[in-house]
Amino acid sequence: MSTFTRAHLATLQEVAARIIDTRDLERAPERLARELLDGFSDVCLRAGLDGVVDKLGLTDDPEATERPELRAALAARLASKDDFDPGGPRNAKPRQLADCLLAALGLAVVDEPPRLTLAGEVRDEVLAALVSVLDGALATFRDEVLAWARPRCEEHRAVFNKIAAQLDEGGLRMLRQPKVPIHAAQAVQQQLTAARHAVIDRAVSAAIDRALPVLAAASAEAAARIDEPISLRLTPRAVASRRAAEPRAPRTGAALGQVLLDDLSELAHLAWLARIQAARTYSPRETFAVGELVEHPKFGRGTVASVALQRVEVEFPEGTVTLVHARG
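and the corresponding structure tokens:
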């Protein structure tokens, strides 16, 4: 039996919930089955589970996502009130739809493999490396998109120029729709979409390349995971780039860098320890604040729990001690 990772069940149920909001669930179970299969393929590809999609004979083509026998098997379950009750509690339906889908596909839910744990300081360094590249790349994003698309729109050069003039500073949205032939506008927009994906993919790949030496210095295994296939061909790098190219992804270096790091951590199964806070050596002349770590010659390392004028209470392993501070 094939498997589906438990961590992605919630995403699958979110897809089911969106479908519920737009469909009459008591009619056309085959149409509902098709939409669920479309959503399932998208969830898998966003998680790097292309191995699951491939094994089931599905594709990422919205016009041919499911095999007829799979759609029929799922539709049969959706039509059975033993498996799915369209009149039941609304909050139970997303889970029921997801269960029907996984059962029809013959998928068993399994837990994720163990995560590789790294220091929080390494996480900060990796993030800084990502942002250092993304800041520069995104500053010229609009120009890069137009430069990529322009030679591919020679047939519709005049239309391209009119549309380009109306693109916002981020190169994503039209400020005003120019009066141009629909077929030409569609052709130009297709090239602009392809350009955005290409530019983001190039920026993300360069950012990951900048961060990999930092990650490798801490763990060669962690660095190797970034370019290892997750389930078939897709790697964490490829899936993270795919997510970054989505319209809802942020377009500032700091925000996209954080999203990219989170995606790579998820896809490569990396976990991060809490950042190690430096402890200050205790002296009655120093001034301390709540939450600071204090290194005391007698009591060891402790955390400041409260502050009152020239006294602080510090929690040490053997108990709370009141110390003098701010005597300088």
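(Above: one complete record from the training split.) Residues 116-272 form one domain.
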